[in-house]
Write a structure and sequence with these properties.
The chain contains 7 helices and 17 strands. By secondary structure, the protein is an alpha+beta fold. The longest helix has 21 residues.
Amino acid sequence: MPGPILCHPGEAVSAQVRRLKGDSSDCSTREARKLVREVSKVLKRRGGRLEPTAKAAIESSLAEVRNALSDGGDADRLAVGCKVLRTEVGRRSQVLRKATVMEYVQSLGLAVGVALLIRAFIIEAFMIPTGSMIPTLMVDDHIFVSKFTYGFRIPFTHTDIVDVGDPQRGSVAVFEYPGEGEDRGKDFIKRIVAVGGDRVRLKDNTLYINGKPVPTKVIGQDVSCDDRTLSGCRCVRQQETLNGHIYVTQHMATSPARGGIGCVNNPDWPIDGPDVVVPEGHVLAMGDNRDNSSDGRYWGFVPIENFKGEALFIWWPIGRAFHGIQ
């Protein structure tokens, strides 16, 4: 994930030194206080590389400005003191401006540390590897996922530090695959269609939750599936509204004339038997590309503790950048 833009500590100190070189015959109380703060920081970070006499000269000038401020901030005295202090610093600017290797190491460590903290607790970037969420998410879309939507967790564990809430119907979320086999521990992204205690079924390509159909409207009867693995197939797209989320799903067109080999619509789930009941502490997740998605219909329910975060928006490719994920 792209890290935050941080100011290199060495560059920050060097910038302070460049500013302090300025020669001004005017120095207000506010400017004098700022000058004292900046010179103090420079001495703290890089004063050790100065000759003792040079460091003593800067410290003496610094003390004079401090005393002038303590005595009421006489304008003439401050002007002289600031000028002398800037001059003393300016004489040693070449020595003070050069960053050390250790400062570069500290800067890199700080940047990496902040980036890891952001990735662990705030936001993380993911790339979409499959077409299971078409048309909401396309293959190779890059997205940002909120890590704090469901609370703060100890990194690389399922242990919550702060529990904010549970995954809700309709949201698109990232979770660890709950089953066994080669996908164990991998990150999956699907839409949550039902939560603990819900009764669910898919009938004639319409989702039913607790016996009621999710509001569904067909918006495309014979369209491209936009899925490279479904070459030659045609799809039906429909708009669904679930828990305030308005999104588009797709399934294979049922017309044999429009279907190629493997273009099979599975309009019902489960095929036989009663509605499926989601266990407490779990959710049922499905892909929006209903006939080309490995999801909870095949490998079961997702424990709440497996969830990593909620999808926010697409940031790449550029043509889809900043497109919010419903």
